[in-house]
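Batch manifest, entry 17 of 40.
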Amino acid sequence: MAGTPVTLFQGPRGSSDERAALLFDGIEPTQVLALDSLDELLFTVDTVDGTFGIIPLENNVNGEFTGALSRLILTTEHCMVTQVRTLEEEIGAYGLVGNVIPREALVNIDILPKFSRALRELDVEALPAETTFEACKAVIQRGNPEMIAFAPKAIAEGLGLVPVIALAHHNQMLRTRYGLLQRDPILSPKSSRSTFLLWPKDDSVGTLSTMLEEFRVNDIDIVSLRSFLFALDSSHAFLFSVNNGLLDAKLQATLKTLVGQGVRARLLGDYGIEDLLPIDTTVEKVRMLDGIANYEAEMVRLQGGKA
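Output type: structure tokens
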């Protein structure tokens, strides 16, 4: 469609990044294009008008944050994340026939740790696949009933594969949060969340507490705070997520004051960075130190029984 913004993702075709693109508002499937590298995607969105980008922000396979966030901070000047969506897919074993004991399994390397135990138990050899889509296609092309692929149900069954009964109870639910990247977005005054990076020029004892005091005075509700160390000069930057949109007057006043004090700022978007999956328990069930006596006993234990 002429005039429709092009949405870019880091290839290859059939990857979860491509499927994630269709979760966002206003994205036309015919205008979703693959690029070879993340840096190429970021550079294109940052310099070419009329392009969007899809980047993974965090997932529950590789950890809370992916490398995309650091690359965004380091390689772009104008890009912000304007929408966040979660791609949730149940990954299972699929083959040409369901009642089979598999001997080989094609699996994307990123999700292999989720299934390595099951493969060892059945003595199944794991073969690498670039994407779950490519894994399914390879099973079909090779025509070997003892070869299976690990893939989302929609992908596998869409290509004519069926669930493998022997591995049915090993299905895993994977969730990945994606951001829609846009150059020079028009922000909404209704937004109630935002994320930004603050990098003090004076990286000394008390720098963080000074910034936190400014947030307190202006009644800024901090949801999440992460510290990052820049290796070359050993300085610290701080990634904040707050319950205030970037157009919120109190937040604007706070950031303006901090910038005036020599703190460098990078606005990343009106969205929140928080833990993808909550800890599945109550705090009472977590082993924590409660009370001075318990704390002192723990310190004695850590010193080999010496007070």
